[in-house]
Please model this.
Amino acid sequence: MASLLRPQLQTFDSHRSFRRREAGALVSLQWPSLCTSSCSRLEFNTGNCLLKGRLSVRCSTVEAVEERVVEIKEQERPLRVGLICGGPSAERGISLNSARSVLDHIEGDDLNVCCYYIDCNLNAYAISSAQLYSNTPADFDFKLESLAQRFPSLSKFVEHLATSVDIVFPVIHGQFGEDGGIQEFLEKANVPFVGTRSKECRLAFDKYDASVELRRQGFVTVPSFLVQEINTDKYLLLEWFSRNHLDSQSGKVVVKPARAGSSIGVIVAYGIEDSIRKANDIISEGIDDKVLIEIFLDGGNEFTAIVLDVGSGSKSCPVVLLPTEVEIQLSDSTDRKEDEIFNYRRKYLPTQQVAYHTPPRFPTEVIESIRKGAALLFQRLGLLDFARIDGWFLPSANYQVNSEENDNMFGITKSGTLVFTDINLISGMEQTSFLFQQASKVGFSHSNILRTILQHACSRFRPLACSSTMEVFSSRLKSRGEVKSGPRTGSTQKVFVLFGGETSERQVSLMSGTNVWLNLQAFDDLDVTPCLLAPTNGYASLPQTNEQNVHSKTVWSLPYSLVLRHTAEEVLAACFEALDPVRAAFTSQLRDQVMVELMEGLGKNKWFSGFDISDDPPVKFSLEQWINHAKETQATVFIAVHGGIGEDGTIQSLLEAAGIPYTGPGITASRTCMDKVETSLALDHLANIGVLTIKKDVWRKEELLNTSLSDVWENSTTKLESETLCIKPARDGCSTGVARLCCVEDLSVYTNALRRYLQHLPSNSLSKAHGVIEMPNPPPEFFIFEPFIETDEISFSSTSHKLMWKGNSRWVEVTVGVVGKRGKMHSLVPSITVKESGDILSLEEKFQGGTGINLTPPPRTIMSESTLQKCKERIEIIANALDLEGFSRIDAFVNADNGEVLIIEVNTVPGMTPSTVLIHQALAEQPPMYPQQFFRRLLDLAAERSVGSG
Model:
């Protein structure tokens, strides 16, 4: 019967098609009309009413389109998991990222996932799994009524879950997800779910209540002052400042919401007045009506630890994985107080502002105390399945515990004091999150740790644990236990995914490469190895053209656990650590200890498949040696290096010379598109068919820095006939150093940042409101000025779920993926980009899930079908005129009336992050291409290319 399951498992999706997985392929049966279903991705198996000879589906608008006999016994159906994301918190965008990771790594023939979304008004929807790949909820909030099924109430939603899924996996961060809200609804309906019960969630989520409970349980806590109303009693706060030896005018404290997650609204304050003002801001902005003021732990080292429950049934047995030290990278170029906080931006955007160390660089006794304390806390607070616990290690030399009553409390060690501060009931589950970093260190792949957590949760619910469905799931979970980090046996195609490099977009490159690697791992006929093109001291926006220098660059072949880092620098540091005998022995000893503890608990369960990640060392090559290695192993190279030698034809030239297949355009097209001026010149002849280019004024960096800025501004605005300019590197990536300048004062701020080698310009540094601008550092040789193109503002109301477009200038900004062979490039559906933080898309908005808005496809209220088709035709003309092949991304302005295209730039190695618009556009194809199939298609195109024709 198991052999019947794969060819007959079908899914319905809001893309109007049935999708059937057959031996790794995706077959699509077109559906004539949009269905509003009771489960947005209905699984047509024994869980959803199969009748012999006819499919019967709980859906008011769908009739059977296919007569077939399906015989799948109830006891052999897949486990049905309800994945719930979204919520009212500001972290709902991150919730999408977490849900996407869970879906990618748990779904299979033995496990069936239905996806659900809670909006900011607590309305529940059944959504397509495709929506999880959106960049932010705002991408689809405004079209939910037509795209998904809305439940009349949360109660009706939970009633649906009770009959449609076996267990719920909630991944709502912050309010309603971690405060016991969704858990209470599930408990009342007796729906099994992953994670802690509602009562315990409420206590642990509230930072003030949790602190009180921790102190009662014998843990050292951070002194805090509770603010619950705007008119705070200053005398009481003054008394608290005095009691904790803080200066009332300048005493340094942290102000944070008590119930808004681990990073939202957290800010540094100085003195009583500043503290009250910032606490009032949190309350008045509606973030929370309960605010904590805590002493700032100067000289402390922040850490976080994942706790995994390995107990049997209702008996808890927490094991703490290897903790992570969070090192804040303070910028020498700025004195902004907020830089001292592990805030939302640091946590979720991969810029070089934070570094993680797993295990921490603490004494062994401190690490053991962290693990012991986190396990005790987990148990005493009644937590279940898994959690993340944050805290601080305060070395004795830097911090003295004020109160004598702390002396007998847990957390006092010979080396210093441990303070546990935050309990995260649903830890972030992005691809490189703490959960996966720490799990991979002790032998778990993404899939294995998530399925282990899910299986443990199932085992706590006796009716579910004893069901035949669970026996099927458990047996298949057991059979999945293969080592994924080592070479695969049998006939496999070797693939090297290359990322990193020296450009200012190397962190995005790391995200892209990691995503490609994880997706391609799903194919049994591929042996995929992640490879880091190592950054050197600092980084350059322009490649070194000296051939000897290029060949001597370093490439590291990486084991599984070393890829899951925040920055390319962290990956590189982890490589050196892994080869350092002392550090490697230290890590190995801790790893072995944790694995023994895990096996003592998990090994008692018949379903546990064991560990599937080996502890291999990285391998160091020169670039020349690495290319020879790729040639010897007949590997195909998937290029994910953004900018620099990854995008200017250098890597392409070296690979072609060795006869190695690679993804993306060839040498000449790469060189042309890397240079924004050359790109415009190559397309000038297409103006008569509606393909336009933007005028440019090129400046050398030295001239820009040494010429009177008034003269520069006067010359450029006159030449370009524009009072507002856009400045950008001439040959760097698509986001770094791009800014709108409205006056000579703005130019002064920008050039000062270049002169001081600033890594970024803080928000609102320029006269026109703007988000953080990542700067190329050191600056490139050439910059260009362009007229700033005004586009019509597109705004979105999160409360009314309505999209608003003024439509005055008739121009909108789009980004479009193109895929195919040379001369036959196919345009994917364009995405309209909406700028949330200013007139230039920030690095976050382009690449980081949870920020930015992309409208895919463009709403008909903005762009008609005929205009859309004209736009796509012109995009294909551009792609073929530039000799693109494989895949690329074209950024442009489009006239909403006639489809004229004003080209911005062409990216031959576009972002391939988990929420990139390329994924959105591939999912909008007919039939839709999910990420695994999309990246496999790009790899196949590389194998089909004519090497040597670039």
Summary: The two ends are 50 Å apart (CA to CA). The chain is about 35% helix and 20% strand. The first helix runs from residue 2 to 8.
